[in-house]
Structure to design on (980 residues):
């Protein structure tokens, strides 16, 4: 029986665009950046899911919202059946508390179970702390240890699980004495020391050398296998996502355009965007004759969204109908869905 | 603690800073040991003696006496106590207030920030002196009031500096990470933000001491200080009011000199501290390389047809303690016109160092210790800096990593290209330059209507295109691209790869691509040079590198690459890290991480031997297998 640990339901996150004084005086309508525009997915215990997309697709905003570093405009984020959409910044106002029926302690306890790994291991560690202080800090914040021995034991355990052993060899060092891969292991250890059930990994290997990427991804896989961790992995790199995730959601301009089991999405992509992303992957072992679909231009401005299908201005197979009709996710089979008009029978045959 | 020691080590090598420190310490010693050093007690009553009133400097009073016959030198010594006290306390107070306001405004932002910053603006436009006079008039005179006034007036500048630092810190990932752990605001501010602010406020504090001392002097000079306490300011006041008019003009000099002395000393120290804590102020210099003698056999041999031929290039970095670290040793390769070579390796393998050495742009600590770099059969290492300046960009051009940093944010993209064209005399008139700029932007696929925009209006991919257009401006023969696609999204990466290939064909460009991404190399490069630990590991045409790699390092790099066609294959990693320059392994530099390591690898350094036509491998194991065949 699979157990849903995270359920994101119709998540919307809009950022207001600052208005000039003239715009304010003339009562121009407030413009917004549609960072996340109705995203729904579920993540089961022990499952690894990839959120794939270019910058501006909203994948990082989704993970920030899941962890409460931002508050959604609307939508539901159920973490272990508690709605945590409004736990932003670790503080809850009184009425929100009442609505949630959770005390601060319970919020903290819940929060402990969802941890984040950031993109840049050179940036995500305080340069003034030692490795020991970095890994011990979460324990102190959550008051999880009674004495020094217990703290040492848990820090040592977390570091060694992450492949930094013997831990004593590393824990007096400052981050500038560690390599990129070792730093990312420290970041993971600092998350793991709280024994979380959900890890949100935001491009955890994109800043690392290719030779080290595999180490970190293998470590995440191992943690999933040993601890039944659920991992939400955001990336723009389909290749690493294809290597180690169970499930994949491809995002474009704040929407999920294709979602399904990783193997299905990669071997049988339905959305033209997914197909293009797969075709341009630079791989040394690829057949050079393989055709590539290179999309022109960039992801459009998320303030003024294209009409109809958001992808149509860059879509190599766009039809007239795409300019006016906004396609919804449609099931290809039980678990695989994509949002493209070409999947509708009337268009598929007309081509 | 180590940080303080490190700062001190830099500090003591700055002569001006040491002068400042000695100057300040003299005054501090004077103040502390005033009763021992002063020949007379300036607070004691002096019996009236006519010849001692306003006496010029003499043997007994070597700075003379004042209008009641007191020794000026003793007053200067005692005055240092008050002046330094007011200076330091006033500055500490202003720093405390400024830091607090800056942190609160920067960290919490929003309304709080608006309110505090408008208050700062308000205080900054009010002229300081009249305000001080008003406050003193209300509070009454006295030293404590002066300290208070200085503290209340001089915090604004500090608070602005601290605020902007805190705003940038707040967005740093490690602060975000700690927030996501659920840390309280107090914890984040005191444990993670405050320590980063300290260096700034130390430097700021030292500089504001001089402000405070001068303000105290001004206030005392105006007679608003404590009339009974002797400070340099009050001495000036007395001198001006009573001595000058009666011919004792020299009485003005000692206190004035003392004020200048202390202000100068703290400014020297503060400037040095600012330089130490703010690395951006440290400078780099370009050095001419030493003339080289060629001794070794060239592997591969120099190719006279090559546009660029590098032979046995070796580069050292000189560490702070003076030892030479061998960053690059005996790197050789040839680049034919119109071909492209990929310099591949993990971070720390020396590929960027090689690239900088080719352009003769190594940082101050880098030295080219051997080898030759022939550009059209002309050794670049024998060129003077002026000759190099003419070659850089015009013949050998570079595309740096991080396109957003390579463009000037306040000028349009077109104007930057035009300036470069005119500077290098590639064109003579502005009109020609404009035409050429339009051609270049068209070449890299930027629409003409966007040429007069600024970089912030460009997306990441377009910035990279603009930077490439600038590199092409003077029709260079070679372009060196340092990780040109690393920071970009996959789709943009693909666009840039297509662009690079198109440019190579159309302009017959030679390209050196520096990257750790073998995928990009496979799409762009004809030849590949795999570097490890500053040495050549394998050098061959791309198809050989990808199909029949012989060096274990190349093989492992390829296995580490996820293959979308076979996602089930487990990804291999290369355990361990590239060697540190200060502890290079003996023998083959890859042996600590090599799975095929043999006893010989620990002792003997493998030479790059030809394995087939234009294929060189530096590996004992590969050499032995080939011989066995």
């Amino acid at each position: 029986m699979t157990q849903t640990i995270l359920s994101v339901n119709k998540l919307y996150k809009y950022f207001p665009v600052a208005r000039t004084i003239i715009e304010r005086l003339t009562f121009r309508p407030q413009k917004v950046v549609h960072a996340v525009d109705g995203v729904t997915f579920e993540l089961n215990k022990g499952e690894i899911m990839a959120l794939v997309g270019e910058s501006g697709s909203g994948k990082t905003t989704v993970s920030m919202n899941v962890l409460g570093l931002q508050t959604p405009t609307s939508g539901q984020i159920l973490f272990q059946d508690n709605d945590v959409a409004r736990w932003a910044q670790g503080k809850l106002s009184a009425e929100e508390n009442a609505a949630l029926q959770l005390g601060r302690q319970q919020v903290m306890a819940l929060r402990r179970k969802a941890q984040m790994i950031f993109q840049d291991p050179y940036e995500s560690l305080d340069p003034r702390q030692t490795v020991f202080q970095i890994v011990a800090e979460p324990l102190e914040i959550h008051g999880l240890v009674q004495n020094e021995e217990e703290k040492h034991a848990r820090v040592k355990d977390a570091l060694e699980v992450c492949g930094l052993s013997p831990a004593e060899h590393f824990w007096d060092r400052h981050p500038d004495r560690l390599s990129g891969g070792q730093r990312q292991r420290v970041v993971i250890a600092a998350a793991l020391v709280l024994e979380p059930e959900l890890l949100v990994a935001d491009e955890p290997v994109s800043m690392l050398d290719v030779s080290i990427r595999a180490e970190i991804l293998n470590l995440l896989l191992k943690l999933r296998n040993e601890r039944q961790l659920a991992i939400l992995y955001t990336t723009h790199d389909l290749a690493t996502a294809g290597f180690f995730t169970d499930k994949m959601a491809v995002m474009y301009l704040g929407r999920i355009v294709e979602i399904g089991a990783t193997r299905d999405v990669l071997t049988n992509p339905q959305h033209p965007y997914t197909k293009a992303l797969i075709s341009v992957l630079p791989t040394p072992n690829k057949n050079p004759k393989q055709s590539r679909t290179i999309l022109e231009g960039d992801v459009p401005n998320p303030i003024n969204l294209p009409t109809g299908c958001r992808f149509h201005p860059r879509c190599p197979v766009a039809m007239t109908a795409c300019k006016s009709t906004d396609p919804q996710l449609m099931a290809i089979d039980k678990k695989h869905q994509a949002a493209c008009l070409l999947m509708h029978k009337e268009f598929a045959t007309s081509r | 603690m180590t940080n303080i020691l490190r700062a001190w080590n830099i500090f003591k090598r700055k002569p001006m800073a040491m002068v400042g420190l000695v100057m300040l310490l003299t005054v501090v010693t004077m103040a502390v040991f005033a009763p021992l050093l002063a020949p007379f007690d300036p607070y004691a009553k002096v019996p009236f003696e006519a010849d001692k009133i306003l006496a010029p400097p003499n043997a007994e009073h070597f700075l003379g006496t004042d209008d009641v016959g007191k020794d000026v030198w003793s007053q200067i010594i005692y005055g240092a106590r008050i002046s330094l006290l007011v200076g330091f306390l006033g500055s500490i107070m202003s720093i405390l207030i400024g830091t607090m306001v800056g942190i609160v405004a920067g960290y919490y932002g929003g309304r709080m920030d608006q309110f505090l910053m408008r208050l700062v603006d308000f205080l900054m436009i009010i002229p300081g002196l009249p305000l001080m006079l008003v406050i003193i008039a209300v509070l009454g005179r006295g030293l404590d009031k002066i300290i208070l006034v200085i503290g209340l007036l001089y915090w604004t500048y500090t608070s602005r500096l601290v605020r902007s630092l805190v705003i940038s810190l707040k967005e740093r990932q490690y602060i975000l990470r700690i927030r996501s752990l659920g840390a309280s605001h107090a914890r984040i501010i005191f444990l993670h933000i405050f320590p980063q602010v300290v260096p700034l406020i130390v430097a700021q504090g030292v500089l504001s001491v001089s402000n405070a001392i001068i303000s105290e002097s001004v206030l005392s000079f105006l007679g608003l200080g404590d009339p009974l306490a002797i400070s340099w300011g009050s001495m000036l006041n007395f001198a001006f009011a009573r001595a000058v008019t009666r011919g004792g003009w020299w009485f003005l000099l000692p206190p004035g000199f003392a004020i200048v002395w202390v202000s100068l000393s703290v400014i020297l120290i503060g400037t040095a501290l600012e330089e130490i804590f703010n690395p951006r102020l440290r400078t780099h210099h370009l050095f001419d390389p030493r003339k080289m003698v060629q001794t070794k056999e060239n592997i591969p041999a120099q190719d006279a047809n090559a546009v660029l031929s590098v032979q046995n290039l070796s580069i050292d970095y000189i560490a702070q303690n003076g030892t030479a670290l061998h960053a690059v040793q005996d790197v050789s390769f040839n680049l034919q016109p119109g071909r492209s070579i990929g310099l591949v390796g993990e971070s720390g393998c020396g590929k960027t160092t090689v690239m900088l050495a080719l352009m003769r742009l190594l940082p101050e600590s880098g030295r080219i210790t051997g080898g030759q770099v022939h550009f059209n059969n002309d050794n670049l290492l024998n060129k003077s800096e002026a000759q190099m300046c003419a070659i850089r960009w015009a013949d050998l051009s570079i595309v740096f990593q991080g396109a957003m940093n390579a463009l000037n944010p306040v000028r349009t993209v077109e104007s930057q290209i035009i300036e470069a064209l005119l500077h290098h005399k590639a064109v003579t008139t502005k009109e020609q330059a404009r035409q050429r700029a339009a051609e270049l932007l068209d070449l890299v696929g930027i629409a003409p209507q966007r040429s007069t925009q600024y970089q912030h209006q460009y997306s990441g991919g377009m910035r990279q295109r603009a930077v490439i257009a600038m590199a092409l401006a003077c029709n260079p023969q070679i372009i060196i691209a340092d990780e040109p696609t690393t920071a970009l999204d996959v789709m943009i990466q693909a666009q840039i790869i297509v662009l690079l290939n198109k440019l190579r064909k159309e302009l017959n460009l030679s390209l050196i691509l520096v990257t750790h991404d073998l995928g990009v190399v496979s799409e762009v490069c004809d030849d590949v040079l795999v570097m490890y630990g500053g040495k050549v590991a394998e050098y061959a045409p791309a198809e050989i590198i990808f199909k029949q790699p012989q060096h274990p390092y190349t093989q492992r790099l390829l296995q580490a690459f996820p293959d979308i066609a076979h996602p089930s294959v487990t990804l291999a990693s290369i355990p361990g890290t590239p060697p540190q320059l200060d502890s290079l392994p003996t023998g083959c530099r890859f042996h600590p991480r090599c799975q095929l390591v043999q006893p010989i690898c620990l002792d003997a350094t493998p030479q790059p031997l030809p394995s087939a036509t234009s294929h060189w491998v530096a590996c004992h194991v590969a050499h032995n297998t080939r011989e066995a065949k």
User: Anything to note?
Assistant: Chain A has a mean pLDDT of 84. Chain A is about 35% helix and 20% strand. The first strand of chain A starts at residue 4 and ends at 16.
